[in-house]
């Protein structure tokens, strides 16, 4: 496991070659790390919660865990959640791979990987991590000789405050469509009406505290254990960001622009273990929030066209 650093006058970003994992994004003006991070680098070797890792080959949940490849052959995918879901690339996901890192300066690095996972056809990926003043950018290019599955996302957990949870953060999401899930947590092709009285608590199109969306009495809140673990379909309107989040005091702000069609928002609701070092609690429920910029989850089963031989994803994170 090797550690790499990008740095300019505004930001300092630390990442690993294992999983192309981003460990820190430090805002230099106040020395604030806006990412949830493990206290020990050794925890990134297991990384049960995918902290900062690059997720793939197919981010999100896929169920039934199967698809037809370009030869029209039936392919079964590995199951690694609830005995029915293929989650974040399954048992041999990209978060476990060691990427080749090429860093020629302090503000840009390229990471390369040829993925030969037997569940998917061979594909080669290049990730570019770069800094431009207070903007951290992630660009992902995927190339395959034959059409295949390519849907990657960075699984960073953000916490912009000095509080132990993100409940008082103010969140804006540029979306009025929320992907529905069934009682087995399988993403469907249907969307929830966020204007309805039942689900308006999940509408962040005007910005509000995250705490207003937690621990509700409806079906979706109960399925998500009182938090959020759902995909919003982004409205791609010129010059409008996908996500804006600020801490409770307004001291730190993150604005996200992306070319991806959805953002999976997860408020870290499902905690099995708490990592401790020197009796310091590293991870607890609602201590961070992810914004997984990706294709709509389960698109393999909900779309007629899902194979491609060229893939490009771009997301900018503006830290203020």
Structure characterization notes:
The chain is an all-beta fold. The protein has a single domain (3-319), classed as Beta-galactosidase, Chain A, domain 5. Helix content is 3%, strand content 42%. It contains two helices and 27 strands. It has helices spanning 219-223, 299-302, and strands at 3-7, 11-16, 22-27, 32-33, 53-55, 61-62, 66-68, 74-76, 86-87, 100-105, 108-115, 123-132, 135-148, 153-155, 157-158, 170-173, 177-181, 187-193, 208-209, 229-233, 243-246, 253-258, 262-266, 276-277, 280-281, 289-294, 308-319. It has a nine-stranded antiparallel beta sheet with strand order 10-11-12-13-27-22-21-16-19, with no helix packed on it. The longest helix is centred in the last third of the chain and has 5 residues, at 219-223. Mean pLDDT is 91; it is low at 276-280.
| Number of helical segments with 4 or more residues | 2
Give the integer mean of the pLDDT values. 91
The helix-strand sequence is: EEEEEEEEEEEEEEEEEEEHEEEEEEEHE
The count of strands amounts to: 27
CATH level-1 class: Mainly Beta
The largest beta-sheet arranges its strands as 10-11-12-13-27-22-21-16-19
Structural class, from secondary structure content? mainly beta
CATH topology: Beta-galactosidase, Chain A, domain 5
Tell me which CATH architecture applies here: Distorted Sandwich
Radius of gyration over C-alpha positions, nearest whole angstrom = 19 Å
Helix content: under 10%
Q: Note the main sheet.
A: 9 strands, antiparallel
* Coarse morphology: globular
